[in-house]
């Protein structure tokens, strides 16, 4: 086995991404990363179906990508699934946040296809360099411990990233050894997107600073994920201590340190739509005060020292 294959197998087993014999749905763009993942998964004996999303943004080049992936699926003996953007979707991609819109369209389709095909997992070819880029982007925007963990190897919706502990260099070496063809997306060569700027100018400089940087980086992400798991377990314990019912919290049993109590409220109530200074209001408001989440469908009432969460009428 190659170094990449060994590292992929280790991550699959350690993170329990899926089991031998599981039917996998692999998102293949036709680029280097996804072609390598397809070859590595097939070489490891996994049943794989290939899914390709054609955004129809680059004319003949986009059509060529779809044809290439269809041929690749046939070569590897895989079922092939194709989805092409409608005219309205292509227009939305051009006028909105291209990367975010494209990601949402692709993942919505993959989830629907996963359900229809009864696949055990969706696989994408995100790798260690992608994770470093994500971390740096999060740092520039402001982030928490969760943001520092970068991409996760496995999500609750069945999305998995089997190459997340492999570097771009290891992927290139694998492709060269196995003489794999792939398609180049011209947009990857531009500095139009922040991620591309990091990839072209920042990441190479960082890798020069530490020759063993990638091995250390993989270990760092793993430790951060472990730290975050411990952090969330602590939050759950603090929350259970203050919880009277699913929609009632005893403020007197929240942590005595206001900063800690605020963080606890933030992590546990943000999904209700509460934002900004509303968490401080929830913590300090007198009984009878009504707080409405901005843009949310929930309210928080303070009654006799209790936080009562209810649906907005």
Ordered list of secondary-structure elements with their pairings:
Blueprint: H1 3-14, E1 24-27, H2 32-43, E2 48-54, H3 60-75, E3 80-84, H4 87-95, H5 98-117, E4 121-123, H6 128-141, H7 145-148, E5 159-160, H8 168-177, H9 194-209, H10 213-242, E6 243-245, E7 248-250, H11 258-269, H12 278-284, E8 290-292, E9 298-303, E10 306-311
Parallel strand pairs: 1-2, 1-4, 2-3, 4-5
Antiparallel strand pairs: 6-7, 7-10, 8-9, 9-10
Overall shape: globular
Label the structural class: alpha/beta
User: Spatial order of the strands in the main sheet?
Assistant: 3-2-1-4-5
Number of helices: 12
Terminal residue distance: 61 Å
The major β-sheet equals: 5 strands, parallel
Number of strands: 10
**In percent, how much strand structure appears in the residues?**
5-15%
The CATH class assignment of the largest domain is Alpha Beta
Please tell me the CATH architecture of the largest domain by its name.
3-Layer(aba) Sandwich
Tally of separate domains: 2
Q: Strand-and-helix sequence, N→C?
A: HEHEHEHHEHHEHHHEEHHEEE
- Which bin fits the share of residues in helices? 40-55%
Mean pLDDT: 88
Say which CATH homologous superfamily of the largest domain is assigned: HUPs
Q: CATH fold name of the largest domain, please?
A: Rossmann fold
Unreliable segments (pLDDT under 50, ≥5 consecutive)? none
């Amino acid at each position: 086995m190659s170094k990449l294959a060994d590292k992929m197998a280790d991550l699959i087993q350690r993170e329990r991404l899926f089991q031998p014999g599981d039917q996998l749905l692999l998102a293949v763009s036709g680029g280097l990363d996804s072609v390598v993942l397809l070859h590595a998964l097939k070489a490891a004996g996994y049943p794989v179906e290939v899914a390709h999303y054609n955004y129809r943004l680059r004319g003949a080049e986009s059509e060529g990508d779809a044809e290439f992936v269809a041929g690749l699926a046939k070569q590897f003996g895989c079922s092939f699934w194709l989805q092409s953007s409608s005219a309205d979707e292509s227009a939305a991609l051009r006028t909105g946040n291209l990367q975010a819109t494209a990601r949402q369209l692709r993942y919505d389709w993959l989830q629907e296809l996963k359900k229809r095909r009864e696949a055990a997992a969706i696989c994408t070819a995100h790798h260690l360099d992608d994770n470093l880029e994500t971390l740096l982007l999060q740092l520039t925007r402001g982030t928490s411990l969760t943001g520092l963990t970068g991409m996760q190897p496995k999500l609750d919706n069945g999305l998995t990233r089997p190459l997340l502990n492999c570097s771009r260099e290891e992927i290139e070496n694998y492709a060269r050894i196995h003489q794999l063809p792939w398609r180049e997306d011209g947009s990857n060569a531009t500095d139009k997107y922040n991620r591309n700027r990091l990839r072209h100018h920042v990441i190479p400089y960082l890798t020069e600073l530490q020759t063993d940087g990638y091995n250390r980086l993989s270990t760092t992400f793993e430790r951060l994920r472990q730290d975050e798991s411990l952090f969330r377990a602590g939050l759950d314990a603090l929350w259970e201590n203050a919880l009277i019912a699913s929609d009632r919290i005893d403020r007197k049993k929240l942590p005595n340190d206001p900063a800690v109590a605020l963080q606890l409220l933030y992590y546990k109530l943000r999904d209700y739509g509460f934002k900004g200074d509303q968490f401080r209001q929830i913590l300090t408001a007198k009984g009878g005060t009504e707080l409405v989440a901005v843009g949310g469908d929930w309210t928080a009432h303070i009654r006799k020292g209790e936080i009562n969460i209810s649906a907005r009428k």
